[in-house]
Design brief:
Length: 226
């Protein structure tokens, strides 16, 4: 599990020279999920996963997701003093998670419906008002019958859906499902655009589908170039 930190540090050394001094790779043994902490410039990997190892493809996907998208979309604006420009404008999450899941699957030549398990968990809480235990018992059986999913992953999904409150649903993780379909459609429609790579990864933490945010970021990039 800790090897992923060494791999990520090597990537920062060889590919992201400008970020290496500002960003830290952190291993938290009690954490269950990976994340990129934009405010404190940390790439954090978990040591307490329900599946205590990474397959080759899952390792590649995770690094692309966290480093190749969440970190990379921030880097052009890493030195700006206006935090929202580098940490994310309002409601950028669905677009960002869509890019991350789509590109990680493209590299590994795989396809799934990202975040579907979270969509079910959140729906059971939001529309039916079920308790943590009730949602978990449904998800444990449903996900195993449909996909052979381990019960621990179903538990994590319900935990994320209620975000520690055990009562109030948090819809944040719908971003994986909604964003992936938006981004796939966008890529299909703009596959021949010469600036597609820049739109996806070089335009900062914006909602690509929000014209006002795109205009703001274009203005900021012009000022940086000048």
């Amino acid at each position: 599990m800790e090897d992923i930190c060494t791999i990520t540090e090597e990537i920062l050394d060889t590919e992201y020279h400008a970020a290496r001094g500002n960003w830290k790779v952190v291993y938290e043994k009690d954490r269950s999920t990976a994340c990129v902490d934009q405010l404190n410039r940390k790439i954090i990997f978990p040591g307490n996963r329900n599946i205590p190892y990474y397959t080759r493809d899952s390792l590649i996907k995770l690094i692309i997701h966290e480093v190749g998208v969440h970190l990379l979309r921030e880097l052009p604006f890493d030195q700006l003093e206006i935090d929202p420009i580098r940490t994310g404008l309002r409601r950028y999450e669905a677009c960002e998670e869509g890019i991350a899941t789509t590109l990680s699957e493209a590299v590994t030549d795989t396809f799934s419906t990202p975040g579907l398990i979270h969509y079910v968990s959140i729906s059971l809480a939001f529309f039916y008002g079920l308790t943590f235990r009730e949602i978990y018992e449904i998800q444990k059986r449903l996900q195993f019958l449909a996909w052979g999913t381990l019960s621990g992953r179903s538990f994590d999904s319900v935990n994320r859906a209620l975000r520690g409150t055990y009562a109030l649903p948090n819809c944040k993780d719908l971003a994986y499902y909604n964003g992936s379909f938006q981004v796939r459609k966008y890529i299909a429609e703009h596959i021949d655009d010469s600036d597609l790579f820049d739109q996806l990864l070089g335009s900062g933490k914006i909602d690509l589908f929000n014209p006002d945010q795109r205009a703001v970021m274009m203005s900021v990039k012009e000022q940086i170039v000048i």
